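Please produce the structure of this protein holding fe (ii) ion.
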Amino acid sequence: MSSGHEKIMLMDDNMANLFVGKNMLRMFYEVYLAPLLRKRIMATELVELCDSITGGHVYRAQRYLQFLIEQMIREDVYTDEISEWDLDVVFSSAQLHDVGKIAISGAILNKPGKLTDEEFEIMKTHVQIGVDAIERIEAAASQREFLHHAKVIASTHHEKWDGSGYPRGLRGENIPLEGRLMAVADVYDALISARPYKEAFTAHEAERIMEEGRGVHFDPVLVDVFHAAAGRFAGLANQFREEMNILDGLKKCEGIHRRQNYLPVRQHAAV
Ligand SMILES: [Fe+2]
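Below is the modeled complex.
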């Protein structure tokens, strides 16, 4: 009998689209998500099912969050709050910040252009859908601390320091620290990565845009922490870019290899 993980790996993008409906989503939580959450790392693959970009984003954003917290500890910033956390649990739980995207259609997630107002409203629902998913699991699971941080991060990572974010329009330190941290990590990765609707910004450009968000989108103290760790952020972004280039090269080689093996068979069949 195949495991939950093996079942997930057998599904392709078309299958993932079936889960857009709420009923299917419920089945998805109960049959797949809860068992996989027992192996925390699998959360990345879940989101990857619906959005080929997001999976890598989830991992990178988690690492950026780690860099920020390590820098905060070095600089003794918000250490009273951080000292209450089990850091490994917080890093792991950050993987679920966009889990609600499992219910957003690929047409919106991968749209090669600006979202319409209506599409953006749909995109915004990924926050509440993610929270609902985590709460559903929370009721049955034993990893309460992990799920508590996951829920805080999923529910507040799109709030903005000036109160203009969503879904609740929280302002300043009313936004939990986890959400303020995730906002920095999340936006930096969105800037530095190529997306269907935009080219990747350079590290320098990304840092400038992050600075523009100081006290507007982001907690100003965390922007200062980000600047102190910006070299590590850029290093990780470069490493991923190089890995993606290698992967693209390998895929092209594999395509050529397949075509070379395929052609003689077709020629033979045609005779
Ligand atoms: Fe998000």
